[in-house]
């Protein structure tokens, strides 16, 4: 893939090209960025420019034999390593190289979900075992076929087994001459720190909404400008997610989410059951897309509830829904709705039964919608000076700092209410003399933490 065909990242592409032209090619680089940001296309573009025999000032020539072979991911000096379903019969990447090439050529912004769907096997966990690391070592020990650079591209190194990671570390510690390691991943916290310390980090930021919208216009010319702009903002820089949104009818997802949530809040469970039936027939990928979309829309509602409309990224009917639904949020239910959707999304990724899962989510959404704004735990006869201020804040939906601050205020004022009562009990005890002991049948007053209070117990 040529740099000119990669969406955005103009300054980063210029820097990568400048390093090669100035002869500053690190032996190992880690292209790190979020999903859909373009880490894999950038690494492939870098490899193509490095192997090109007629480099231009701003890109590879695209005409030489090296460029033609890299375009098909079939260059003899471009070696590829990626996670697979490990089994007794399949332990190395060579058995799946044809499938991986097809997947990347079809979608250069490939992620693990698309790759997992491309493969077929009983084991659904993608891994890179020690045999793949040995395969990497073996390939790099060979001489270059064309007498120039050798490139080893390792996709998703965070999925390496510990034994494989340690073996890769030894290869990085003693690199072969004219060898370039290109690691491409999304989660550096899952990689050995010793491996990270031996690679030069190439941070790939998320794409700008305008860049995503421009890519959508090129790939889907039939999309109206308002839709491309809305999807570009909603994707949060994830081009792969933006493509999925454009193909899966966002209007359909919005109408489904809006009507389902209305049924949950109105306690119309027969309708919620019908929504569960429809949800179970949507297909796994569209189900997960719905959960991600729901989380996005709830986030916009939270931003509007927190009185920061300038951060809201919603348009048309979505914006109307956000403005209305945000009025139903309060400090007690705002976190619960988000957590329920996140948990449901996680269960979907673990192949939960979609019909049962969605019906359970419907009941939980109904419970969150009817969560009482505030339950005053103080006695009605108490005249706490802070109670008036606290009640007014609760009626306004909580303080602007959010649910955590609201809960903290609740606990603080509980303590302030409790202290006068403890002092009154202590004063009464001093006027009435020492507390009765256990043999006299007296009971010591109890504190809220369950320990005996009211002074020390004096035995006879």
Summarize the structure.
This protein has 460 residues and is mainly α. It has 3 domains: 3-205, Rossmann fold; 248-369; 387-434. Helices cover 51% and strands 6% of the residues.
Which key phrases capture this entry?
5 strands; 51% helix; 3 domains; mainly alpha; elongated; disordered C terminus; Rossmann fold; 19 helices; 460 residues
Structural account:
The protein is mostly helical. It folds into three domains: 3-205, P-loop containing nucleotide triphosphate hydrolases (Rossmann fold), CATH 3.40.50.300; 248-369; 387-434. Helices cover 51% and strands 6% of the residues. It contains 19 helices and five strands. It has helices spanning 10-21, 39-51, 65-71, 97-106, 112-118, 130-140, 162-173, 193-196, 209-219, 225-234, 239-247, 250-265, 269-280, 284-305, 317-325, 334-349, 354-369, 387-395, 403-432; strands at residues 28-32, 78-81, 150-155, 179-185, 200-203. Strands 2-3-4-1-5 form a five-stranded parallel sheet, sandwiched between helices. It starts with 9 loop residues before the first helix and ends in a 28-residue tail after the last helix. The relative contact order is 0.08. The model is unreliable at 372-460 (pLDDT under 50).
């Amino acid at each position: 893939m040529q740099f000119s065909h990669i969406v955005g990242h103009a300054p980063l592409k210029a820097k990568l090209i400048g390093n090669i032209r100035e002869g500053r090619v690190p032996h190992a680089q880690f292209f790190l960025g979020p999903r859909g940001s373009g880490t894999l296309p950038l690494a492939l573009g870098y490899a193509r420019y490095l192997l090109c025999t007629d480099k231009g000032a701003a890109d590879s020539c695209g005409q030489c034999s090296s460029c033609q072979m890299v375009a098909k991911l079939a260059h003899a000096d471009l070696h590829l390593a990626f996670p697979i379903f490990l089994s007794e019969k399949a332990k190395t990447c060579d058995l799946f190289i044809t499938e991986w090439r097809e997947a990347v050529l079809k979608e250069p912004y490939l992620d693990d979900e698309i790759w997992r769907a491309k493969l077929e096997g009983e084991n659904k966990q993608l891994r890179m075992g020690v045999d793949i690391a040995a395969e990497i070592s073996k390939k790099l020990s060979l001489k270059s076929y064309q007498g120039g650079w050798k490139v080893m591209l390792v996709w998703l190194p965070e999925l390496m087994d510990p034994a494989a990671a340690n073996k890769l570390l030894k290869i990085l510690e003693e690199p072969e001459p004219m060898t370039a390691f290109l690691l491409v991943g999304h989660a550096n916290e899952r990689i050995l720190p010793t491996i990270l310390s031996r690679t030069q980090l190439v941070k790939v930021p998320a794409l700008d909404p305008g860049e995503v919208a421009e890519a959508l216009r090129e790939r889907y010319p039939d999309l109206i400008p308002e839709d491309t702009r809305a999807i570009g903002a909603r994707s949060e820089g994830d081009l792969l997610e933006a493509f999925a949104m454009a193909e899966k009818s966002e209007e359909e997802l919005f109408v489904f989410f809006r009507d389902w949530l209305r049924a949950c809040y109105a306690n119309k469970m027969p309708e919620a059951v019908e929504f569960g039936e429809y949800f179970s027939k949507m297909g796994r990928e569209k189900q997960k897309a719905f959960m991600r979309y729901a989380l996005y829309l709830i986030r916009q509602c939270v931003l509007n509830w927190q009185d920061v409309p300038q951060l809201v990224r919603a348009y048309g009917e979505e914006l109307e829904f956000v403005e209305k639904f945000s009025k139903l949020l309060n400090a007690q239910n705002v976190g619960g709705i988000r957590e329920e959707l996140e948990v449901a999304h996680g269960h979907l990724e673990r192949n939960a039964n979609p019909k049962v899962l969605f019906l359970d989510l419907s009941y939980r959404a109904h419970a969150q919608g009817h969560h009482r704004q505030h339950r005053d735990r103080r006695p009605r006869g108490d005249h706490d000076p802070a109670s008036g201020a606290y009640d007014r804040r609760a009626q306004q939906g909580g303080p602007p700092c959010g649910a955590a601050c609201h809960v903290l205020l609740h606990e603080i004022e509980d303590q302030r209410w409790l202290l006068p009562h403890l002092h009154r009990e202590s004063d009464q005890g001093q006027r009435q003399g020492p507390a009765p002991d256990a043999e006299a049948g007296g009971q010591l007053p109890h504190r809220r933490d369950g320990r005996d209070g009211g002074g020390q117990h004096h035995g006879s």
